[in-house]
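URGENT: need a sanity check before tomorrow's submission.

F., can you look over the non-specific serine/threonine protein kinase record below? I want to be sure the sequence and structure line up before it goes out.
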Amino acid sequence: MPEIKYESGNELPAMEETVEVSSESILFAKYELGKLLGYGAFAKVYHARNVETGQSVAIKAVSKQKIVKGDLTGHVEREISIMRRLRHPHIIRLFEVLATKTKIYFVMEFAKGGELFAKVAKGRFSEDLSRRYFQQLISAVGYCHSRGVFHRDLKPENLLLDEDWGLKITDFGLSAVKNQIRPDGLLHTLCGTPAYVAPEILAKKGYEGAKVDIWSCGVILYVLNAGYLPFNDPNLMVMYRKIYNGAFRCPKWTSPDLKRFLSRLLDSNPQTRITVDEILNDPWFMKDYKEIKLYEEDLELKNHDDNNELLNAFDIISFSSGFNLSSLFNKSDFLEEIERFASIELPERITGKMEEVAKTEGVRVVRKKDWGMKLVGHNGNFAIVMEIHRLTDNLVVVEIKRRLRDDEPSQDFWKEKLRPQLSALMYQPEGQVTDRRRNLKSEAPGKPDAMH
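C-alpha cells as predicted:
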C-alpha cells in the first residue's frame, strides 16, 4: 500500500452511485449482469440484479480451468464451505453458488460503498471514526474465531462498505478452519499480504490463526488513524525485518490511549499479544461501543460436528442445493442431481416405501448402513442413492442423489415413479416458507450444465 497523503476528517464522502450497464447476459434466467466491479488472476466480480426481486448482488465469476490448472480446487471449496457458515452483519453474505461447465459463480451480498481502502487512501480517519470501524471489525473477527474460522488476509482492500457505511469483511480465499491445525496446535501455511503479515508467520515455526488475525487488525487500525502503514519499505526484506522486530512509531496526533492499545495489538510476541476478549474490555475500544446485534438464528449456531447424530443449524444451511460442491469440478460422464426434503415420518417407513416402489418396477435395491439405500437401473444407466438424516426428534431430512448418463437418454425413474409415491411423506410447513426452510426442499437444476 503506497504512502497516503495526510488529511484529517471525521466524515466519509458522499456515496457514489453505481453505474448500471445494460447487458443481455442473464445468468440462469435469474441474474442480469451489470458493471464490472473488479478482477484478479482467477476471477471477475460484477454488479448484478436479481430479475425477479430487483435485489442488487455481487457475482464473482471464477474460471474452472484456471482453478484446476493452479491446483486451487481445495481453496475454492474451502472458501464456499467457510462463507456458508458465516452470518454476521459485518461479513459479506454468500447467497448461493452456481456453476456451468467452465465457470463457478459466487452470488454474494452487494456492498455499495466499495472498498474501505479507497476511502482511507483519500485521507486518514479521525480517531473516533477509526474506532467505530475497528469495533465493527473486531465484532466480525471474534465471531469468525468463535466458529473456528481464521481469515488470514485481513487488510483494507478486503473490507467493504455497505450503503449505510457499515463495514463488511470479504474474501475468505486464504481462510483456515480448525481441522487444518496440526497436532502441535498451530497452522503452518505461509499466506497473507506482506505489509499485514504477522511476525510469527515470517518465523516459519507455526502460528495461531486467531493471533495473526489480531495482528492484521492492529495494522488496519494503524492505517485508519495514520493514513499510512506502520511497517513499510521498498525493500521487502527490510520491511519483514521491521515487522519481525515490531518496530513502528505512531504519528504525533495519536492519543496516549490509542498508542498503548496499538502496542498491545502489534506486539511481536504472539503469547503476550492482546486477545479478542481483552480487546472487548479495553477502555479505548469500549468508548461509545454499541454491541453488535447478531441475527437471531446465529445465536443458535454451533460448530459443525460430523459425529453429532442430530443435525444443527449449520447442517440445515449446508443442505441448500446452492452450496452443493460435489459436481463443481466433476469431469465424469455422469450427471449428478440432488434433491432434499423434510419428513415427519419414521425413517423405516420412508425406506420401506422406496423399496416397495423399486421392487414393483424391477429396480435393484442395495441397502446401506443406517437409513441409506441405493437403487440401480437395469443397464446401469442411472443410480439413485438415498440417505436420511435426523434433524430433530420428530423431523428428518431425506437426501436423494441421482446419477444419469448424459449420453444415454432414459426414463427419469425418480421424477416419474419414485417421487410421486413419496410425496405424501414430504413435510410441508404451514404458511409462507422462509428462504432457509425452502432450502430443505430444493429442486435440482433443469439444465445439466448448471448447479443451483
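My own read: The mean pLDDT is 75. Residues 67 and 73 are 6 Å apart (CA to CA). If you see anything odd, call me.
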